[in-house]
Design goal:
- The complex is a heterodimer of chains A (261) and B (266).
- Chain A has 261 residues and is mainly α.
- Chain A has 11 helices and 2 strands.
- Chain A has a two-stranded antiparallel sheet with strand order 1-2.
- In chain A, a hairpin with a 2-residue loop joins β1 and β2.
- Chain B is α/β, with parallel strands linked by helices and 266 residues long.
- Helices cover 35% and strands 26% of the residues of chain B.
- Chain B contains 9 helices and 12 strands.
- Chain B has helices at residues 56-63, 95-102, 120-130, 136-149, 165-177, 195-209, 221-227, 245-250, 255-264; strands at residues 16-27, 30-41, 45-49, 71-76, 79-80, 83-86, 89-92, 105-108, 183-187, 214-217, 230-235, 238-243.
- In chain B, the strands form 3 sheets. In chain B, strands 8-9-10-3-11-12 form a 6-stranded mixed sheet, with helices on both faces. A 4-stranded antiparallel sheet of chain B has the order 2-1-4-5, covered by helices on one side. Chain B has a two-stranded antiparallel sheet with strand order 6-7.
- The longest helix of chain B has 15 residues, at 195-209.
- Classes of the chains: A mainly alpha (261), B alpha/beta (266).
- The interface between A and B is medium-sized, with 21 and 31 residues.
Chain lengths: 261, 266
């Protein structure tokens, strides 16, 4: 029978002791930062791709379609490897470490974050487009009739309303993003899961360590779902709309996460 | 046709606010506007009536280029709208030029189209501030004056979903007026309202009719009688007849007009 190493398990799930190990502490910090940066990149790219897809210029539509087609039609893991090693061996971009004050951002982290963000852009594009299309076309017409250009009307009238539609699925995307960062382990980007695999390489306690790792991700996504519920109820109150699903519903409905792609 | 088409004075006569010549429009194979001609002079109030699907709303929407046209010309304030003429072919204007022209044309929609994420006053000051670059303080002062004028000074900080349909439409009128347009277009402004709210909107419009150039697509014959200088009857994409309200209701010339009037006046 397998002897479960409880002391080791507790050492690695209890943050004060686990954080003695810089692999875990820095990995957790990196995971959070990577998730935020990649999601932000995804939102910005998604907005432009969505506008491209709705453009009256066929070239923009074609580019947007191709982008979505590729990044949703191929595995993220493949995209990540292609970006990191592909650009490296061709010397298009070697991913050198970037020093930001005391912080050093490794090439693997850059490549991984970029891949996550670019991939996310394709998913966000569809979410943003659905959000914009949910807005009554009369809003754009009214704005235009007041002398606003398309860009101004989008920015001031349509997008602020679309945001209300976009924010709930965006929250779910971020939940997914925090988990998907673990794929970066394969390119040795020092995020949380990479930290645990390194510890495991040293101690060879995969059962204990990977349960511990899963609990860290569970903590991140649970905390996020509280934040998300708070944001969405705030949205509802201000605009007089109906409330979104509650915390418990969100945690246990199983409809939110889509796991690694 | 009752009124003969006046000779082509277009850009020279600054009292002609709208001039449409031979306007044709198709939705696919459907010919919705057939050689429409219309001239509206400064301070004139023109009410366009006609059966639903006759093209009257579409025609109104062509006047501020919310709809494209397939041939013909529409001049507003002396300039062709939406297009310029390049060797006899219509070429669509730049977005900037179209927007600039639209800023001088107020439009009121059937379904109000107020911005739901903005309060009444914010709805009104948005375009003056962003398009005309008027400082916020000045825009607010002007906006409050307009709200008072449509009788809604106390609704200043309400969101559209917190006020009635009639009040929303009055805010929408104030929003259009805030750009100080030379021409106001009303696209069935009372059709989406409960009957008890129609009067308050028509009262505001009657007030405006004393001082503005207006083109109104409407089924409100009472308003047409009281405020219009001219009534234009449109059917199947054509202007069938136009005349002063007295003339129009007393002696409709065409059979189609008589039939339409008998249907709506019971």
């Amino acid at each position: 029978m397998y002897h479960f190493d409880w002391p080791l398990f507790f050492q690695y799930i209890w943050p004060p002791t686990a954080f003695h190990d810089p692999l875990i502490r820095n990995g957790l910090i990196a995971t959070i930062i990577i998730s935020v940066v990649a999601q932000a990149l995804g939102v910005v790219l998604g907005l432009f791709v969505a506008l491209g897809k709705m453009s009256k210029f066929p070239l923009f539509r074609l580019l947007a379609e191709a982008y979505i087609w590729y990044f949703r039609g191929t595995p993220l893991l493949v995209q990540m490897m292609l970006l990191f090693f592909g650009l490296g061996v061709t010397h298009i971009y070697d991913f050198p470490d970037i020093k930001l004050g005391v912080l050093v951002i490794s090439g693997a982290i850059q490549a991984g974050t970029l891949a996550l963000g670019v991939n996310e852009g394709a998913y966000m594009a569809e979410i943003v487009r659905a959000g914009i299309e949910a807005i009554d076309p009369g809003q754009m017409e009214a704005a235009k009739s007041l002398g606003m250009t398309y860009g101004l009307a989008m920015q001031r009238i349509v997008l602020p309303q679309a945001a209300k539609v976009i924010i709930p699925p965006l929250g779910n995307e971020f939940n997914s993003m925090m988990k998907t960062t673990s794929l970066m382990e394969v390119i040795s980007a020092s995020e949380l899961f990479f930290g645990f695999t390194q510890v495991n390489a040293r101690l060879f306690k995969p059962f204990e360590l990977f349960i511990a790792a899963s609990l860290y991700y569970l903590a991140l996504t649970t905390i996020w779902s509280f934040v998300q519920a708070r944001i969405e109820s705030g949205l509802g109150e201000r605009k007089g709309a109906e409330r979104g699903p509650g915390m418990m519903e969100r945690l246990f409905s199983g409809a939110t996460g889509k796991g690694a792609r | 046709m009752v009124t003969p088409t006046t000779p082509s004075v277009k850009l020279a006569d600054s009292n002609i606010i709208v001039k449409a010549e031979n306007v044709n429009k198709y939705f696919g194979a459907l010919h919705v506007l057939k050689d429409m001609d219309l001239e509206v002079r400064r301070n004139e109030v023109v009410v366009i009536i006609g059966p639903s699907g006759s093209g009257k709303s579409t025609f109104l929407r062509c006047i501020n280029h919310l709809e494209k046209i397939n041939s013909g010309h529409i001049y507003v304030n002396g300039h062709m709208i939406g297009y310029h003429d390049r060797n006899g072919k219509l070429v669509e204007d730049s977005e900037r030029n179209i927007s600039r022209q639209r800023a001088e044309i107020g439009m009121v929609f059937q379904r109000f189209n107020l911005f739901p994420h903005l309060t009444a006053i914010e709805n009104i000051i948005e375009a003056p501030m962003r398009v005309r670059k008027i400082p916020e303080e000045q825009a607010r002062a002007e906006g409050e004056r307009l709200l008072a004028r449509v009788g809604l000074a106390d609704k200043r900080d309400k969101y559209p979903n917190q006020i009635s349909g009639g009040q929303q439409q009055r805010v929408a009128i104030a929003r259009a007026l805030a750009m100080k347009p030379g021409l106001m277009l009303f696209d069935e402004p009372t059709s989406a309202l409960d009957p008890e709210m129609i009067g308050e909107v028509l009262d505001v419009m009657k007030e405006l009719a004393h001082e503005m150039t207006m083109i109104v697509v409407s089924h409100e014959m009472g308003f047409a009688r009281a405020a219009a200088n001219r009534i234009v009857f449109v059917d199947e994409g054509q202007i069938i007849e136009q005349a002063s309200p007295e003339e129009f209701f007393a002696n409709p010339r065409s059979e189609r007009t008589r039939l339409f009037l008998s249907q709506i006046l019971h």
